[in-house]
Amino acid sequence: MAHANDRLFDHQMAREFKLKKTRALVDKRMDLSDAVAQYVEDGDSLIETGFAYARGPMAAYWEIGRQKKQNLVGIYTPGGLNNLWHEFGGIEGAHVAYVGVEMRGLIAPFRRGVEAGTLKVFSDWSHGGLSASLRAAEQGMNYVASKSMLGSDVMKDNPYVKLGEDPWTGEPVCLIPAMYPDVAIFHVHHADKYGNGRVWGLSVNDTAIAIAAKKVVVTCERIVDTDDIRASAANVIIPWYCVDAVCEVPYGAWPGDMPGMYYFDRPLQEQVVRVDWKTPEATKAWVETNIYGTKNHYEMIQLAADEEGMNVLDYVKRLEQFACSAAYFGIGTWGTGGERDWKYEEVAKRAI
After folding, report:
1. Which of 173, 292, 300, 331 has the highest count of CB atoms within 10 angstroms of its CB?
2. CATH topology for 4-248?
3. Model pLDDT for residues 309-330, shown as the tens digit of each residue
4. 298: Cβ–Cβ under 8 A, 6 or more apart, which residues?
5. Model confidence pLDDT, tens digit, residues 63-74
6. Which residues have C-beta within 8 Å of that of residue 53, sequence separation ≥ 6?
């Protein structure tokens, strides 16, 4: 079988693959562990969805690690907490627009791999350039011409884009090929049994990714009736005909944010990024306890009670309610809830 990178920009192969997928309205519901086992194969390219810690399919990412999938190729638009698997043979390399968790810092396992040369960076991208590549695939174009990435070293480090000339103006343009990832997994608020996925809030590149990817798994907070989906069709960003599997996974974005439902688990993310993944030894211990040592997402959540024994799910739901209320009444902006009772110093002291 061709390497994931060889398949990634092969529009003919992608079209032939997609033509074989059924457009019938069939029931696609299954357990998450079965969906990962069936649709995520060793050596696949896997693209991140949502936006870093916002609406990422974290339960699915942890399950990929739990099943010890090997030699995956990551596509990060941006990339967040799904970047530790290369230390366990899970990720061979990546195509990168951005990897990190914003104010919480860089992802230590990813950085260690790049610095040591054990994690390959196959190509660098701008956010706009990678989005354009996915949009080209969404719209059935072999490539698009753009100004994104011109005048930067990204052009030197990306073997897939080419310098061209606008035939009307003679100006330089970057020719960006359509990208077709092997697998995309999305976490949405609601889905029906056929795979129509509805979200509130940001969609980022997800609609383009759903159409571009060859295999698509949807996880959701709740499976609802198709009539319910049709009643608010404007919020449906994942169309059924792209989807192979639908999995009901409440709190499937935890420890990330699910807009309107629960806030990201800031204490846990701070602890993981600044302390638990600081060294290879600490990372290995964390994975063995939280991933290999649990049978599913819910057992993993059970380990995450805070020092006072407060239910972690109640905590993140309350923060999201506060954030939404504060933004609505003009008290603050999106994200205010996480500032209510949290200080960086609480974890920073342990990171020294």
Report:
1. 300
2. Glutaconate Coenzyme A-transferase (3.40.1080)
3. 568 888 888 888 777 755 443 4
4. 251
5. 999 999 999 999
6. 80, 81, 101, 102, 255, 256, 257, 264, 269
